[in-house]
Amino acid sequence: MIDLHCHSLHSDGTDTPEGLALLGEEARLTALCLTDHDTLDGVPAFLAMQSRTKARLLVGTELSCQFLGQSLHVLGLLVDPADARFQARLVELRGRREDRNRRMLVRLAELGCPLALEDVQAQADSPLLSRVHFAKALAAKGFVRRPPEAFERLIGDDCPGFVPREELSPSEAARWIREAGGVPVVAHPGRFAGGRFHWDEAMADLQRQGLEGLEGYYGEYRAAEQRYFVALARRLGMVVTGGSDYHGAHKMGLRLGRGRGGLQVPDELLDRLETQQKLGAHP
Ligand code: AMP
Ligand code: MN
Ligand code: MN
Ligand code: MN
Q1: Rounded-to-integer distance, Cα 246 and Cα 166, Å
Q2: pLDDT tens digits for 38-53?
Q3: What string of DSSP letters covers 10-58?
Q4: What is the distance between the alpha carbons of residues 28 and 6, in angstroms, rounded to a whole number?
Q5: Candidates 5, 11, 12, 61: which one to mutate for ligand 1, based on the most atoms within 8 Å of Cβ?
Q6: Residue 36 in contact with ligand 1 by CB distance below 6 A
Q7: SS3 string of 93-155?
Q8: How far is the CA of 194 from the centre of ligand 2 (A)?
Q9: I need a labelling partner for 126 at 20 to 30 A (CA). Which of 42, 85, 102, 203 fits?
Q10: Furthest-apart CA atoms within the chain: distance in Å
Q11: Separation CA 162–CA 151 (nearest Å)
C-alpha cells in the first residue's frame, strides 16, 4: 500500500515531516509522498528519514488553481526539490497567500472579528498560514466556539470573511510541475464537484491543459466515487493516483494510508506514475 497525499506542519497539517515518515513505517506503507500546500520546506527533514524507514519517501506539493470559477487542487507529484525555478515559483505563490491573508484580516475586522496577524501565527508551527490557522485563532479569541464554526459562518468558501487568492490556471500549474520534473495530477476531483456533475468533458479539458493524472483513490471517497474516478481515468488515458490527504489533528478521523478506514492504494499505481514521469519528461 502507498499514500501519495499528506500534509505536515509546514502547511496545514499538525505532524512533523519526521513524524509522518515514522507513521508511514507504522502503517506499513511501501511509499509515502509529502504534499504540503505551496511549499517544499518539509522535504529536507522528510527525506533525511529515508534511512530509518522502509517506506520510500517521495516529494510532492499541492497547488490551488482556478477552474470553472472554483478552486481546483493540483498535486505536483515527484517534483525535483532542487529545482530553483520551481522553488522561486512557490515563493511567488506564498506571497499571494500572504497578501490574501492580510486582506482576510481586514474583512474579518469589518465583520466584528478583529484578529492580528500574530494571533493567526500563534496557531501555526511554520510560516505558511492557512485558513485552518485562522479558524483556530477565531476560536482562541472567542469569536466562534470551535474552529468548524469559523468555516461555517466566517471563512468557508461561501462565507463573508473569505477572500480568494489570485490563483493559477490549471495549465500554468501543470507546466510548472512538468518543468520541475513532476507529474501534474488533479487532486480529489470528487471534492471539486460531486453528484450530478459530468466529469468527462471537464476532465478532458484539464487533460488538454496538461493534467496527466487524477486522484482516483482518496481518503474521503465512498466506494462508488472511487470506481467512478478510476473508470474516468481509464476512459481518458490518465494515470490514477491515490492518497489519504492526512492532516493530523486538523482532519480528525483520517488516518495516513487508510483514510476513513477503507482506503487501500495499490503499489502498482506508483510504478505507472513513474513511467508517466519519464514519458512526459521535457528534453
Ligand atoms: P487556504 O489554503 O488557506 O485557503 O485553506 C484551505 C484549507 O482550509 C483546506 O486545505 C482545508 O484544510 C481547510 N478548509 C477549507 N474549507 C474547510 C471547511 N469547510 N471545513 C474545514 N476545513 C476547511
Ligand atoms: Mn489542506
Ligand atoms: Mn486539496
Ligand atoms: Mn491536500
Answers
A1: 26
A2: 999 999 999 999 999 9
A3: TTT-SS-HHHHHHHHHHTT-SEEEE--BT--TTHHHHHTTGGG-SSEEE
A4: 16
A5: 12
A6: no
A7: HHHHHHHHHHHHHHHHHHCCCCCCHHHHHCCCCCCCCCHHHHHHHHHHCCCCCCHHHHHHHHH
A8: 19
A9: 85
A10: 55
A11: 9
All domains of the chain in start order, with CATH: 2-90+166-279 (3.20.20.140), 91-155 (1.10.150)
**C-alpha dihedral sign at 227, 232, 237, 240:** negative
Taking residue 50's Cβ as centre, other Cβ atoms within 10 Å add up to 12
Q: How much is the pTM? A: 0.96
pLDDT one-digit tens code per residue, 54-65: 999 999 999 999
pLDDT of the residue at 11: 98
Instruction: Dig out the grid coordinates for 236 from the structure.
Output: 481518458
Average pLDDT estimate for 23-41: 98
Does residue 141 carry a pLDDT above 90?
Answer: yes
Q: Ligand 1 in contact with 156 (CB < 6 A)?
A: yes
Looking only at the bridges linking them, the beta strands covering 70-77 and 183-186 are antiparallel
206-217 tens-digit pLDDT: 999 999 999 999
Residue 38 Cα: closest atom of ligand 1: 2
Give the C-alpha separation, 89 to 100, whole Å.
17
What is the whole-number distance in angstroms between the Cα of residue 245 and the centre of ligand 4? 5
